[in-house]
């Protein structure tokens, strides 16, 4: 069977070259996880001889899950250890009566429970129950979230650590900020001139600019890959851990709705939504692989593996099928032996791509009916709170609660899908106890 027949490339208006270019853009924008994930997980109390293996384990988990997503779901979305979820793992590991092995066991259970929800049709049904306005707002909010991450990576916006003014402008005197601004100018011009591969070319060009600024460096040595962190997940210990239920509920809520928001945003951006039914093609397979990926990440000691919104960079380059995800998986697997090469591309070089992907995604708000305030206001709250809470799940939750509350108080309870009632109630409980 040919690639065309298996992945329906022509039907989705794509080519192998576009998918490869898109995969490279996606990989370059999310390769940071290979080194940030070990840095975060090292705080979970892992032995010093285990921590160095986290780069290889993170790459292996991402590679396997990306390839599964491409082959099973035929969807242009890449997966890797989730930011935020890895910090949750550290929090679990440091709780009384727990350990990093139990924390990974909780992640395995998260994947298994979510998998059961997918097989039971609940996760898919909730996705289809969400009003279009909230789906559009989720995509736009995630676009703002991506842009904020890019601005932070560029040093254009910096966290102050103060409650009164948590964010402040960066300085052009910082080398990484100067590099990112030059890269943003280069990439913007390439996009404005409609140059194919503008994001990838921009990332590579900005990396070259970073060398004289001493922001990018050549790798000093190549180490043999190790997988010592893998297969230590203590599922039995997690089941016996007294604090399991509330922690597991919180992890499931974040993982569950992060993926729904990400999948919806990518599908909207790639124009893969079925115009007749308004549904995402092969969504059950997508959610199934995402759920399975959480357990794979836990088993391999890499924390929960989840869908990455940075996949929008690949979609912006023309990726429309699972070929993108397969190529992305291959890139991750190659980094197991070529990990030092991935360190050449600094965060300042990928920041412009993230900012401009955010620009592309915010365009979805143009399709929102601002005259319908009962849905437009919850959509606005969703779009606003996703970046400002630094959480896709929290932003979606506030939007859901606002939508249900406004409809009820407007005496229009029948306009609310039963699953929206249940989901809003679950979010209310989650916000109250988490």
Kindly describe this structure.
This protein has 434 residues and is mainly alpha-helical. The chain has one domain. It is built from 19 helices and four strands. The strands form two sheets. It has a two-stranded antiparallel sheet with strand order 1-4. A two-stranded antiparallel sheet has the order 2-3. A hairpin with a 7-residue loop joins strand 2 and strand 3. Helix 8 runs antiparallel to helix 18, helix 12 packs across helix 13 and helix 12 packs across helix 19. The longest helix is centred in the middle third of the chain and has 26 residues. The protein is globular. The N and C termini lie far apart (49 Å). 56% of the residues are buried. The model has no long low-confidence stretch (mean pLDDT 88).
Number of helices: 19
Over the alpha carbons, how many angstroms does the gyration radius reach?
A: 21 Å
State the low-pLDDT regions, or none.
none
Helix percentage: 55-70%
Q: State the secondary-structure class.
A: mainly alpha
- Overall strand count: 4
Domains counted in the coordinates: how many? 1
Strand content: under 5%
């Amino acid at each position: 069977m040919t690639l065309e027949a298996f992945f329906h490339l022509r039907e989705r208006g794509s080519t192998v070259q576009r998918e490869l270019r898109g995969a490279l853009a996606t990989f370059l924008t999310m390769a940071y996880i290979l080194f940030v994930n070990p840095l975060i997980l090292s705080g979970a109390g892992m032995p010093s001889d285990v921590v160095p293996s986290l780069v290889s384990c993170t790459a292996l988990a991402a590679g396997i899950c990306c390839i599964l997503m491409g082959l099973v779901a035929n969807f242009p979305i890449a997966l890797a250890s989730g930011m935020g979820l890895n910090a949750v793992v550290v929090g679990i590991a440091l709780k009384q009566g727990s350990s990093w092995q139990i924390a990974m066991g909780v992640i395995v259970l998260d994947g298994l429970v979510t998998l059961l929800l997918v097989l039971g049709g609940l996760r898919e049904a909730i996705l289809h129950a969400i009003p279009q306005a909230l789906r559009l707002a989720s995509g736009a909010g995630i676009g703002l979230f991506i842009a904020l991450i890019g601005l932070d990576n560029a040093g254009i916006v910096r966290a102050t650590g103060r409650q009164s003014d948590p964010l402040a402008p960066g300085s052009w005197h910082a080398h990484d900020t100067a590099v990112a601004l030059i890269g943003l100018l280069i990439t913007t011009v390439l996009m404005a001139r409609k140059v194919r591969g503008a994001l990838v070319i921009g990332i590579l060009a900005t990396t070259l600019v970073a060398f004289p600024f001493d922001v990018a460096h050549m790798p000093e040595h190549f180490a043999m890959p190790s997988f010592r962190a893998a297969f230590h997940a203590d599922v039995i210990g997690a089941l016996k851990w007294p604090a399991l239920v509330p922690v597991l509920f919180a992890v499931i809520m974040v993982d569950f709705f992060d993926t729904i928001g990400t999948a919806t945003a990518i599908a909207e951006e790639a124009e893969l939504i079925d115009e007749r039914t308004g549904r995402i093609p092969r969504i059950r397979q997508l959610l199934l692989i995402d759920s399975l990926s959480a357990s794979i990440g836990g088993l391999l000691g890499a924390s929960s593996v989840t869908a990455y919104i940075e996949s929008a960079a690949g979609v912006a380059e023309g990726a429309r099928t699972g070929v993108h995800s397969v190529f992305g998986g291959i890139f991750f697997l190659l980094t197991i032996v070529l990990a030092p090469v991935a360190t050449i591309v600094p965060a300042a070089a990928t920041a412009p791509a993230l900012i401009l992907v955010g620009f592309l995604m915010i365009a979805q708000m143009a399709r929102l009916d601002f005259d319908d305030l009962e849905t437009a206001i919850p959509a606005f709250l969703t779009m606003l709170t996703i970046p400002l809470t630094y959480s896709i799940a929290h932003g979606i939750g506030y939007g859901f609660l606002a939508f249900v509350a406004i409809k009820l108080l407007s005496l229009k309870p029948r306009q609310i899908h039963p699953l929206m009632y249940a989901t809003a109630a679950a979010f209310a409980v989650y916000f109250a106890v988490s």
